[in-house]
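Quick note —
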Amino acid sequence: MARAAIGKELNVTPAWVTQLKAKVIKKLQNENRAKKIKPLFYSYEEMRAEITRRDEQIYELTNTLR
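Predicted structure written out below.
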């Protein structure tokens, strides 16, 4: 989901979505925090790979729509 769409759904700006994403990633880099939610998702490496893959898809879709 694109930042603009997420922002619209949450009634915040796309810039805030970007800032929030950065904060979440930074917090998840703390091993203790990551361990707490790890059972709910993937391993940290798999989670980062999935985020990167989705970011690339969003980038490609954005460029396609221009």
